[in-house]
């Protein structure tokens, strides 16, 4: 198939899933055309089946905000027409699904039919999408898509709860490339961070409020009073300054390191003993899956779709959002030397269920079904 993929080219989960999906489809022989405003972060190499089309966003003194959606729709029209695409797959509803609708209508007027698949990722539904300033457009463009997928059962349900959706939504979960995300031998790295054999806790995120990074720090502060531990915080975003201040207030600075954005996050995960993801909302939790693939148990909140991935008492624990006392108790349980090996092994076994080789065929058959029925 010739497939156009539209996504945010950033470090965010939806962009990562879209890029990895395109790469995996290209390996299977499909021709993949990425349409974004910047080269996706994980697409920095040559492959015969991968193409990148940059959206030109022209500014003009009259515009306070350049009309990105129009530039994107125009680019989609041209790529579909000249690259003879069979399908457009847009990731994240806003504004990609509505831009795709516009492109579809323009192409229809020219006698070209293009089926559109929209994948819902989370905040496009649970945070931004349901805001009254976007809701009518989001509802309309989901209903106008030829096929709709969501990354978890919980997100599927949330979409039906928040919007008047007539379309069938199919759940296709996030996936992982176990060739890349696997425990690597990085003992020298572990020794540098944990010179006295401390246990290592890791959190990775985009440091948005919804991630509740402060809960990671509060839980860590409780743990360090009981056992030798270190904390690595990977990523960057609006909450980082506040989190650094919190560490200074709690006096944890010697045991906490902020690493900022990191491309090879699997290297850090390879030396971690526990991964924390205490989010307020989380449709799937790709970061947790990446950790599990590197044999790291997960201490999470029970928000959104996380419990569909992290099995309570087996691969880690799920606690109520903000319940830092229970989180600290559960962390101790996981980190105890008799429990830790079992949690690590079960985390890896669970991650294997989400291997790209299991999930890719679900997308391929969904595409075929959508093309046939549209
Ligand atoms: O988590 C983020 O803030 C990034 C966000 C995105 O849209 O890029 O991630 C969402 O999509 C990921 C891939 O499907 C999911 O694994 C994340 O759980 C989801 N984030 C939220 O729901 C907050």
TrEMBL record:
All copies of domain Glycosyltransferase subfamily 4-like N-terminal, residue ranges: 11-180
GO terms for biological process, alphabetical: bacillithiol biosynthetic process
Coiled coil, from the record: none
One annotated GO molecular function: glycosyltransferase activity
Xref: InterPro entries: Glyco_trans_1, Glyco_trans_4-like_N, Glycosyltransferase_grp1, Thiol_BshA
Gene3D superfamilies per record: Glycogen Phosphorylase B
Origin: domain of life: Bacteria
Stretches assigned to the Glycosyl transferase family domain: 186-340
PANTHER family assigned: SULFOQUINOVOSYL TRANSFERASE SQD2 (PTHR45947:SF3)
Protein name in UniProt: N-acetyl-alpha-D-glucosaminyl L-malate synthase BshA
Organism: Litoribacter ruber
